[in-house]
């Protein structure tokens, strides 16, 4: 009698999904990776594409090419719409169904506009290559516009950049824009004076890089200020309209508005109907399995996993990667591990 291989389905070819597949590729399982795009993206360098320092190809690799030699790994480009956990089935947005024996969920997080979904149309997030290219185009078109305007007052909005959110993404993006203002803008645009360029980093809290060790955030703020970035602390955004940001302390007029103020987990996870935290992440067991579903696992930015001090692990590439490695090792055997028999432990290297 021929025994059918186990069907393992991985949703999301990001840091977590790729790491699981890498560990599972030598197992007897039949693996399917489903991703809405056909490439794995190195998100930490997205800001470099947005500001013209790198090309899209420098930070993206086709998922099919990564596993080209692994006969037991199939890649499907498609967006998963819902999970029918009790039926061991997924539905894609094109209506196709995919069956699984074991399911690994690691879909990308999305921008969190904290209930102000209408702001999304005026402020670009930075999550995908498409977002980065859109920001890049806006920055360049803005400069072209400024170059042609003689009236300094009319020119100012096109030379102004507002980055909302003082986390790592906001800090890196603000710094990179301030850098280009000093270098390529000065070199390539004859009518633009670098002193006219205004870069604002807007943060509602009393310091940037919250969650990082104390001296680090102050140091980072001073470095940004040295580059010419105006860091506005304790300044919540009140409203965003087309080309206009309303702050507690006034308004800034510019078409260059970048949203880096927070993330929430993919809404796909809602279809599991299990406990989620306020960011929409699934509260998982110690082995990353979903309570009540020993064959379904959630990891990376989609998982709420507490460390030994009871603090949820942050949404970071290293967490996603280590969770993927742990789970890939756990599932490389042909029997289903008992829930919570094995425990994931994050190493902060
Ligand atoms: C701009 C930026 C800068 C960052 N900088 C850093 C940094 O410096 N250091 C650090 O440690 N971390 C950084 N991070 C965070 C880090 O990138 C994430 O924590 C990490 O990518 C999470 O990995 P993941 O596998 O959970 O998800 P991702 O890497 O986001 O991958 C998820 C995949 O799921 C796919 N997907 C989404 N929805 C669906 C669906 N419904 N169906 C099918 N496929 C789907 C997506 O296309 C994507 O390929 C940064 C993030 C961003 C956005």
What's the structural blueprint in terms of helices and strands?
Blueprint: E1 7-11, H1 15-24, E2 30-35, E3 39-41, H2 46-50, H3 56-59, E4 60-62, H4 63-66, E5 73-77, E6 80-84, E7 89-92, E8 97-99, E9 102-105, E10 110-111, H5 129-148, H6 152-155, E11 160-164, H7 168-182, H8 184-188, E12 198-202, H9 214-226, E13 229-232, E14 237-241, E15 244-247, E16 250-253, E17 256-259, E18 263-264, E19 282-283, E20 289-290, E21 293-298, E22 303-304, H10 317-330
Parallel strand pairs: 1-2, 1-9, 2-5, 9-21, 11-12, 11-17, 12-13, 19-22
Antiparallel strand pairs: 3-4, 6-7, 7-8, 10-18, 14-15, 15-16, 20-21
Helix pairs in contact: 1-10
Bound molecules: flavin-adenine dinucleotide.
Report on the architecture of this protein.
With 349 residues, this protein is an alpha/beta fold. It has 2 domains: 7-109 and 265-331, FAD/NAD(P)-binding domain, CATH 3.50.50; 117-259, FAD/NAD(P)-binding domain (3-Layer(bba) Sandwich). The chain has 10 helices and 22 strands. The strands form 7 sheets. Strands 5-2-1-9-21-20 form a 6-stranded mixed sheet, with helices on one face. A 4-stranded parallel sheet has the order 13-12-11-17. It has a 3-stranded antiparallel sheet with strand order 6-7-8, with no helix packed on it. Helix 1 runs parallel beside helix 10. The relative contact order is 0.16. The mean pLDDT is 94. The chain binds flavin-adenine dinucleotide. The site of flavin-adenine dinucleotide (FAD) has 35 residues, from helix 1, strand 2, helix 2, helix 7 and helix 10.
């Amino acid at each position: 009698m021929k025994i059918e291989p186990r069907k393992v389905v991985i949703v999301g070819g990001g840091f977590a999904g790729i790491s699981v597949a890498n560990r599972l590729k030598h197992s007897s399982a039949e693996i399917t990776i489903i991703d809405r795009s056909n490439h794995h993206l190195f998100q930490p360098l997205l800001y470099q594409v947005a500001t013209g320092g790198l090309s899209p190809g420098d930070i993206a690799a086709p998922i099919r090419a990564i596993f080209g030699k692994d006969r037991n790994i199939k890649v499907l480009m498609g967006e998963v719409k819902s999970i029918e956990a009790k039926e061991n089935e997924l539905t894609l947005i094109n209506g196709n169904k995919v069956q699984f024996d074991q399911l690994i969920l690691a879909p990308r997080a999305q921008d969190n506009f904290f209930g102000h979904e209408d702001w999304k149309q005026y402020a670009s997030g930075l999550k995908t290559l498409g977002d980065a290219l859109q920001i890049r185009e806006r920055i360049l078109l803005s400069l072209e516009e400024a170059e042609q305007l003689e009236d300094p007052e009319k020119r100012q909005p096109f030379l102004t950049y507002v980055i909302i959110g003082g986390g790592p993404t906001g800090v890196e993006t603000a710094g990179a824009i301030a850098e280009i203002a000093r270098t390529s803008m000065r070199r390539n645009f004859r009518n633009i004076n670098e002193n006219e360029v205004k870069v604002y980093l807007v943060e509602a809290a009393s310091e940037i890089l919250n969650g990082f060790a104390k001296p680090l955030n102050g140091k980072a703020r001073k470095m940004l200020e040295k580059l010419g970035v105006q860091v506005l602390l304790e300044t919540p955004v009140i409203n965003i309209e087309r080309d206009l940001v309303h702050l507690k302390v006034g308004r800034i007029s510019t078409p260059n508005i970048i949203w880096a103020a927070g993330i929430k987990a993919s809404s796909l996870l809602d279809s599991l109907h299990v406990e989620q935290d306020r960011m929409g992440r699934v509260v998982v067991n110690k082995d990353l399995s979903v309570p009540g579903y020993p064959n379904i696992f959630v990891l990376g930015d989609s998982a709420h996993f507490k460390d030994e001090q009871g603090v949820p692990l942050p949404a970071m590439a290293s967490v996603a990667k280590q969770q993927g490695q742990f789970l890939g090792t756990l599932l490389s055997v042909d029997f289903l591990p008992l829930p919570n028999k094995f425990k994931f432990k994050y190493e902060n290297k």
